[in-house]
Structure prediction request, 1655 residues.
Amino acid sequence: MSKRIGVYICRCGGNISDYVDVDKVKGAIEKEKDVVLTKTTMFACADANQKEMEKDIQENDLDDVIVASCSPKLHLTTFRAVTVRAGLNKFNYYHANIREQVSWAHSDDKPGATENAIRVVKAAIAKMRHAKPLKPIKIHSKKAVAVLGAGVAGMRAAIALAAMDCEVYLIERNHFVGGHTAQWEELFNSEETGKNVISRLFHELLLYKNITIYTGAQVIENAGHIGDFMLKVRVEPAYIDEIPDPLEIKKAIEVCPVEVPDSFNFNLTQRKAIYRNNPEEFPEKTVIDIKNCTRCGECEKVCKSINFSQKEKIITLHAGTVLFATGFDPYTPRENEFGYSRISNVITLPQFMRLIALCDKKLIYKGKEVNKIAYVYCVGSRQPDGENKYCSRYCCTAAIFTSINVRKKYRNIANYHFTRGVRTYGKQEVYYNESLRMGDVYLQSFDHELPVVYQKGNKTLVKINDILTEQRELELEADLVVLVTSMVPREDQSTASLFKLPKGRDKFLKEIHMKLRPVETVIDGITIAGTCQGPMNIAESVNSSLSASAKAFSYISKGELELEPIVASINKNLCSWCNACYEACPFDAINKVDEGSKSYAVINNSICKGCGMCLPVCPYDAIELITYSNREIEEMIDMLAKD
Amino acid sequence: MEVEKGQTYKYLREKYEIPVEVKEQLKNYTKIKKAILDALRDHEMTIAQISELLSLSRHEVVYYLMSLIKYGFVQAGELDEMDEYYMYKRLK
Amino acid sequence: MQEAKREATFDALVVGGGIAGCEAALNIANNGYTVLLVEKDLSIGGKMILLSKVFPTLDCGACITTPKVSEIARHTNINIFTGSEVKNISLNGKHKFKASVLKNPRYVIEEDCTGCQLCEEACPVNVPDQYQYGMVGRKAAYIPFTIASPRVAAIDIENCTLCGACERVCPTKCIDFTQEKEVWAVSVKTVILATGFHLFDPLRMPRYGFGSYKNVITSMQMERHLAPTRPFHTVLRPGDGKLPDRIAYVLCTGSRDASVGNPICSQICCMYSIKQAQLLMGALPMADVTIYYIDIRAFGKGFNEFYEQAIGMGVNFIKGKIGKITEKENGNLILRYEDVSSGKLQEAEHDLVVLSVGVLPNQDSQIFFSDRSLQEDAHHFIRQPDSLLNPAKTSIEGVFVAGTATGPMDIPDSILSAGAASAEAISYIIQS
Amino acid sequence: MTAINSELAKELNEFGTFDFSACYNCGNCTAVCSLTTEDESFPRNMLRYSMVGLENDIKVSLKPWLCYYCGDCSTYCPQNAYPGELMMTLRRWLTSRYDWTGLSGLLYKSAVWNIFAFLLVAAGVIVYAAFNSFDLAEIMHGGHLFEMIAIAGVFAAILFPNIIRMWYFTIIKAGIKAPVKLYLKPIGSFFVHMFTQKRTLSCNDNKFRWFEHFILVIGYLSLLFITVFLNWFETQSLFINLLGYFVSAVVFIVTFHFIFERIRKTKEISKFSQPSDWLFVIWLFLMGITAFLVRLFIDLNILEHNIWLYLVHLIILAQWALLIVPFGKWTHFLYRSFAMYFQKIITDHSGFSGN
Amino acid sequence: MNASDKKNAKILVFSTDKISDPAIDMAGLLKLYYPVKVYTIAIPCSSAVKSRWIMHAYEKGFDGVFIAADGSDCPYDESCTEKTGLIVAKTQELMKQKDMDPARLRMSAVCSVCSEAFVRQMKSFNEYLSKSA
Prediction:
């Protein structure tokens, strides 16, 4: 059977043609069997060229099209769309990567790169000789979204999706919503407090009937796929019946003998094992921290609503798409990193922010009034020796904004900032300016020579080689040292692992492409929003969460989704049911069929993900993966190997 | 008014006065274009050389020469001995 | 000239066809709603389409912009008006806006033009090319730039001598000097403002000599130098065509500078300068590149790593703002600065200086709303009354904002904000 | 290791400056200054020392005197931190450090003390006049005597010791051991600088300001010379008489222009005026104009009946000589000249020892 | 034959669409050069490689075959590494039977950002293959 194949070789504005002799490639493949059209182009992806391709396909009656250009991760879909517009099936298109894997990878060897490119294109031609039009597998998609994490990003996404008429399940691991935003008082870039923001969001959430909030809940199992993720969610009970008597509850808290560090205040204070939401948190309820409860029964004596017979529930939810907004952890400094946990008056910025919230007229830490405050920046980020090479983005502004508030709230405060270059980008520069004008002193160290926090007698000193003062060694005696800690990925990544979400070099969840697909992940149907993706401030988190909502909505808005028809297929003539493929399949997509005396395997196409794990295990070589058949692969190998 | 396709410039000419500067600019460009192309008729030259020959500032030579390259009249050749300036040659 | 009147109805009006406007239009259209995209320039794609490569991934700007741009161009739900200006937008009750859009004549029938460039070849005129920031000439009949969308010729009537050469050679007879301005009365349910930003004009800082010293260029000019569709055949000094080998970047030109009235940080200049420095190290392996900075704002995902990569490649970073620039006879430039880390005044000689110009607000959208109901922030960007929870909302209900119209932003942030604006616009349309 | 000390910044604010803490250390001010050199870079480092409180480094530095306040650093400061104004403040602060009596700092910082001191001097003059029964000839004679004694006394008791202190801080404490010949060499240029302030010419400013200053200095010194040594008020020589009219007119016209500029505040240098600045120009103006009038009254023969005029003149003169010259802005003129001289010695010394 | 041919062994890499192929792309993006005769065929998952494909590659003249496996990042199943390992073991058995050096088949997990690791692997593999050739 002979085919009519068209090949386009992209110069990519020099990205390819500077290293690969594009015309030579064209010359080498022009005479290949079945190739009826070969063209080079400056930018294959440019609109004009796309139009030209459409015309070419129709005028030359092409069966298949190959574009040799950048990585298929960038433009496979672009050109598939071109072929579809020209009346072909998208599987009659192949994208050969001669940029990332040829011209860029071998720009040190131009003739070698050209040779390599020729082979790659020839292999593509070999593969396309066997290309057949394929129909996508259509699946029904549920108009429901599971939003994981009820911090500001998750709550905002839930509202946006509910406003677009989706069913929303908002799943929060803690007993209260609001995430870290609930812990902050004044917020930069805003006149509002964290409490206001969270309260506003929570009350808006309640207005939507199509939002269900699960607190104390965690996804423990994920089955299914885009269109229908089947999630098992474990919901921890509060061990208190609904609507308890407020007085009794108050008493119950009073009598509870267990005191544990209050994580809401970053362990600056203690709370009981039975505790209420903080004023900044919602929903307004009381819960028993069952992990720390000793079951002494004191609370039960004073409060009728205490109910230890409540059981944790496992519920099953079906969602068409999942939106991750699982947030960040504040970095915990290592033992003795800038004196942390060794020197008593060294605390982190989040702790400091809570301290300010807790101190009214005077700033008191451990019984002493604080006047001179040293802020040490970039703790846990831009580490010269540690793993975190990234800049945490929000911390400079957060620290400066906090220092301004401290000055405004208390008398006789002097702030000293030990920085590595202040990064108050954009309009946030205004805060830096304000703080300078208030008389705050900024010092700066080299990236490789960090300030040192140490103790001399009962004094806590910070010393720095200040590049702003001709690299003099300057020293400050501080009443309190605040470590401006970074954002790090959540320590508990179990949920992300359930969904097999990839992580970047910085260990945050990774998007497909920062600019082209900034909120999507390689796992179909899963979007990411907010600080689980990287450090961001609140406004930026919300931007990304709205963006992710728009994307999530587009997955499910039509009620139907098309999946790639790349699935395994079994030649039943060769098969004699040995169980090997059934064992190998991770998705239970293979079933046994008995036909008279013969048994053989069949593939369930809507479950098969096309991973191919069943392929090599078959002792009879009876399984092939569509578009990756033996013939296709082996003929590609032939072309790649040919001298 | 019925206007013939392919002749519509005549229609606008009647309604619209072409500014003097526009005409001047065209004249000037045509003159410089000719001068540069003439200078490059027989041998390749650098921008510095063209500038000296035509008493044009080097900056202006860059601008006009690059326009001529853009429209395919001139081509860039090799670098000079000092690896500082390119030589330019006329095409056609 | 006369103005013809026309009418049309869409679900959404997107003002500005830069990357934010495109992204927003695409999101809305993909959910089944109709969009009118109005762009005042001859091509959509904004400033991004003119960039070389983009940080921190170093993808080429064109590779990312063009597929988006061409997807929009083909989208059945999107109508694009290029060379057009929104004149006025008025509110006609909830979910009802009336906009008046002026479509300037291109003097070319868009549908018929094949982009063959024969007219361009025939045109005798040569004027500075605005898309190459004046570094090279273009014709009066021209295609704006290679990857423009639509890739269709236009006549620059202000510089046209009406010689008729273009019309004589046009194979499809698509040049039409009888075209006139059209005013469209457009009814929409929601409006997205994606009017972008202006670059700081360094002529406002005479001590840097931009304009009079020809080897002092702006970062946008350097961006063009490095793009595949560059004005020169390689990176050359505009002053004399010499290959540069000591290139300096002057950061914070027009940003973080109260003396020119712009106290805020432009958020992108550090990173684009570092990116250009990396590209220059590739393009001119012998060249030294020095970046003079106050603070390096490498704050985004992968940015700090990108900055450190530049240090590793040998880019010089010197902390110190350039005070003044003087020109030597050979066109080289003397940069005067204090090397802050040693506390000493220094003078350095460079042969090409790039001014990393900052971001200023585009206040065009102020005039759309004749009743002045669109509020500005202290820096004259569009105000976000609820910047934390509804960052896309403006002071007018139903009018949303995307991208740099609210402040300086890099491309990923612009795209996210466009996503947010489209999410808000979609729910606003759904509720109507 | 040096301790960071925020108290200095607070103290400096009492000497007049504000907002220098807005500095974000870009170094633009140093780079735009036309007087700064690689070896003598300022003003950013002075702002920095002030911010972190390196008091001693400022005390031993001559840099504040090397600045002639053209205002470019403030005009182009991206943070509006007014580095030029800080340099001015540091000059006041240094004056108070050099002054062994401590009065200088007191007068700079406190308006109350200023008023008190000025009233005290005025009262002294009036008491003296009353003591002499308001006899014009007697008072004029005493006045003339006072002029000579005051000049010699102020020099001997205050200015000279202060210069020695300045020398001690900036040369000895800075650890410079320069041989005597290095002190001798720049003496010539010291006088040239003192009288011409020619360094201003390299300032990025118009030449007119230098010219104004120049003729003011010449006018002021000539007036001093004419009144004290040629005894202008009692001379009969027509030439001296006319010269006196001329120079006193020059003084009050130029100072009038200075006052006018300070009121208009268009130039960077005249934007901020501290009491000491006002006192300096106003008293100089008053001195010029009253001297002019006194002589005019003598020539018109009406001074006898207007003895108050001479008393006013004498009060102004006494305040000038006893307060402004030893403790006020006048000293800047002296210290600046010596700073140039010391700087030359330091440079020569480092070149000398460097070889 | 030029010099580069002598240094460069022919290597076939089986990469995976979502994990290791992006890493190889990034190696190019970062200009981390690796031997020029490395060719890649991307498949959905490394545990889908058939022994016959590998053997076919040797037959046709490839010096080495490298499986850039998903490792624990595999989007399909955690058993991927183990399964890919089994394929390698099985194929190496076949190679021994045919008197081939089993070290001509290598496998290593290449995560989606492990560009440098990939390049190191290619360089050392190339060195090994060129030496033994």
About this structure: Helices of chain E lie at 3-7, 20-29, 51-59, 80-97, 115-132.
